[in-house]
Design goal:
By secondary structure, this protein is mainly alpha-helical. It has one domain. Helix content is about 65%, strand content about 0%. The protein has a two-stranded antiparallel ribbon. A hairpin with a 2-residue loop joins strand 1 and strand 2. The radius of gyration is 21 Å and the shape is globular.
């Protein structure tokens, strides 16, 4: 058995070897310097990319609804509107309800935001542009992305507001329903990425390995059903329209965020836009080849390809907000449990059969 595993394992190792080590590791030798530089770069990406997506949402929705949107902040097409909003949030009074659990109320925005920062640490933007290449990369990103709902639950419970609590419970129920098809769709990608040699198949949960496996064909083509399931589940996990029942302003004011103001409310918004970028990046790695170019456009650097794919998927998520009405809670739950989960299981089974048949 060990002899049979050797060719497949060496092939998987060869694929990973084709990617360069992180450019930060090649610039510095001291462990602590490398750690600080990587942490700083991850924070810079996390703080800048969501602002681009936020500005894009302002302008995209404005054009789709035949209005100007922000035009004055920064003079040129309102590019500094989000910076102005940040200044506004800093100036606002930080109000805590009298009956609130102050410690939990204060910690909730950080708990909702920090998991998305962690996701950027393992996303490869090019063969050598990443912070860490974890062997359990997919497991890490899926586990980290599900932590943010704990922050929403904390916010709803600590606010001492029935509308906030209802919104938090809706968010938890929605996460449970849509995390399952999200994980199952990712599991099918791991099967798709497996390599065979000597009659034995070997795969890896490393995001870099999955990106390198898409040199010949992006997985969106053999896994189109999985891609659709993943994107729908990701949008639901972000509580974005049409899956925004946890913050349905026509029913429960603004859900778990109702009692928040100032910077704490801004952190929740930053977590939302950061989540859009992070989950778009994960979908790009799993299905769109990450930094892998189209064959006739290979002269374009990989990090530009990755950035373009992330912005394209982010645009799609914003587009849905202007297109579809909000689902009812029963429709939202039924859609996942009766359609997405069985379809995701069928996708895994079909992928496994095809991989075995073509081994």
């Amino acid at each position: 058995m060990t002899e049979a595993l050797a060719p497949a394992s060496s092939l998987a190792a060869h694929l990973l070897a084709q990617a360069n080590p992180s450019f930060v590791n090649s610039l510095f030798e001291n462990f602590w310097v490398i750690l600080v530089v990587k942490a700083a770069l991850v924070l810079i990406v996390f703080l800048s990319a969501p602002m681009v997506v936020g500005y894009m949402e302002h302008k995209v929705l404005a054009h789709m609804q035949h209005r100007l949107g922000p035009m004055y902040a920064g003079r040129f097409h309102g590019w500094a509107q989000l910076i102005a909003d940040g200044v506004k949030f800093v100036q606002k009074e930080d109000i805590v309800p009298r009956a609130a659990d102050r410690w939990v109320f204060a910690l909730a925005p950080a708990v909702a935001m920090i998991p998305y920062i962690l996701l950027f640490a393992v996303i490869p933007f090019d063969g050598g542009i990443y912070a860490e290449n974890l062997d359990v990369g997919i497991f890490f990103v899926l586990a980290a992305s599900s932590i943010s709902v704990i922050g929403i639950l904390m916010a709803g419970w600590a606010s001492a507001n029935k509308f906030s609590l209802i919104g938090a419970l809706r968010a938890a129920a929605q996460l449970i329903a849509y995390e399952l098809p999200l994980i199952l769709a990712a599991a099918a990608v791991v099967l798709q990425a497996s390599v065979s040699a000597g009659g034995v198949a070997v795969s890896s949960l490393s995001l870099l390995f999955i990106a390198e496996r898409q040199q010949d064909i992006w997985f969106v083509f053999p896994q189109i059903v999985g891609f659709m399931i993943f994107m729908i589940s990701a949008i639901a996990e972000l509580t974005r329209p049409p899956f925004d029942m946890p913050i349905a302003d026509s029913e429960i004011i603004f859900g778990a965020y109702t009692e928040y103001s100032g910077l704490r409310f801004a952190f929740f918004l930053l977590a939302e836009y950061g989540g859009i970028v992070a989950l778009s990046a994960i979908a790009s790695v799993l299905y769109l080849g990450a930094y892998q170019p189209l064959p006739f456009l290979s002269f374009i650097p990989g990090w530009i390809w990755m950035s373009g794919k992330i912005m394209g998927l982010s645009f799609f998520i914003i587009w849905l907000r202007a297109t579809y009405p909000r689902l009812r809670e029963d429709q939202l739950q039924r859609f996942s449990w009766t359609l997405l989960i069985p379809l995701a299981l069928l996708n895994i089974m079909v992928t496994a059969v095809i991989k075995v048949a073509t081994r």
